[in-house]
Each structure stands twice: as structure tokens, then as C-alpha cells.
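Data follows
____________
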Amino acid sequence: MLETGLIAVGIDGSQAALVAARWAAADAQRRGSTLRLVHALAQPSVGGYPEPSLLAPQVNDQMRSRAARLLETTAALLTTEHPGLGIETAQQDGRPAEVLMAESSRAIATVVGPDGVGRLSGAFFGSVAARLAAHGHGCIVIARPDPEVTSASDHGVVVVGVDGSDEAQAAIGFAYEEAALRGSTLVAINTWNDKPLNHALGNYPLDINADGIDQAEHRLLETELAGWEQKYPEVPVRMRILRGRPAPNLLRYAAATGDHPSQLIVVGSRGRGGFAGLLLGSTSQAVVAHASCSVAVVHR
């Protein structure tokens, strides 16, 4: 994690952005960090088509005044909800995704609302949230409202996907940090896909010990968590080995935590099975698009 002490959040006046701002404010207050509210100033395209780059419309004074009012009112609201929180505001010329990508290079986490959820996957991954998740730096959080907990002593769970990759190690570190700040239980999930194995055994009866694979994956999980458990001994940890594809398993587990609601799912930007040129892996894409709680995508 960077030592800048900044949590950045993109706001645009939408309800989703307000949810993101509240998530970021709560996280900044837990960390003792400064909250940076960022509004990107870009003249919208006419008729839904991208304008020619040489004829890009200019931002006018009226737009700047509206942006200033939005930043001011949002900061005032968050100050009321989080007394003592340090808040700074910024207007930046440019498209939201590019502006927030630049902001992410110096922030502990960069938070946005879940624009595009519920659309076709191709449309979603043209959205600001998805472009930022794929191309941003550090930790990118797609924020949704925190679920209500059942009691004052129950702070929910933080779920992290583990697969032995470098990106997963970065995700584990952020997940432990969030669990410690929230007083939450950390659930570390490692999955292996038994579907091809079951298909193969249906045609070729081989002596393959699925329980042995479970044990090997559990040892991998223990190894991946070992150093972090020493750094955060106060964080309760549950380890789970699940069979099947990673994304559906993470989503099902996070949705089925019942009396201990999932506050956050943390994933690496790419897993060990990802293609080298793929900036956002298929597991991360699916979790970002379909999770019912907030999702953090952590880059190396």
C-alpha cells in the first residue's frame, strides 16, 4: 500500500457515486487518511457518438460552477457524517476513466460506483468502473452499500480469492488490512475446477484422488496466508477450499454468508491462469459485474 494517506473517489452527482463517496469516507476515517473527492470535467458527446479528437468540445464556466457546487455539497454531507475527516476536492479536465486512473497512481484506494451493472458484459466493460478496474493502479474499489449487520459485535466478513499468483498476494494484503480496520473475519477461498476431472473420469476411469487435491490446495492456502497471519494476529481467519470455477464460487459464498454478511470481496486483477496480456482476468470481471457487495480489485 502507498503511504500517501489518500483515499480517492470519483463523484458525478449520481446515486451510485454518492454510495462510493460514503464508502470511501468511512474507509478514510478508519485509516486516518484524507478523502479526496474528484470530479472529471468533460463535455458529453452529442448524440451518443464520440466526438473527433481535433474538435473536442470545451468545458465552460457553467460546468465548472456546477462541479464546484457538487464537490462542496458532497464534502459538507460527508463532513456531517464523519466529523473530523480531512477532505479535499479536485476538479480535473478530462474523461472520468482517464482522470481517475491518474488519481489511482498516488492513492491507497480509488473508489467508484458500479456503473453498468446489469448490462451485457461487453457494455459493462466499456464503463468507467470496469476500465478503471482493468487499467488503474493499486487498489480499485467498486462500492455498493454495506449490508446491515445483525448486531453491534458482528462486523461481517471480508472475502478474498487466493490462487498462488502475485496478484493474489497483493489482494491478500489488502483484504487483511480491511478486515483489521473493520474488526471483521477474513474468509480466504481457494478453488480448483473439478468439472474437467469429473468429465474425464466419466470416460476414462482413472485413479485420481480429489480429496488429495483438496489437501494440496489447502496447503497452498496456508502457505499464502502464513506471513499475513503474523502481521495481523487479531484478524480471525477461515480457510475454504471449494470445487468449481472461481468466480461462481466466490459470488455464491459471499452471497450465502447469512448472519455474517459479506462487506467486501477482494480479488487480484489477474489470476495465475490468466493470459499475460489480459489486464483484467475473467474471474475479476465476473465478480465486479455480479457481486452484491463492494469489490476491491488489487493490482500488483
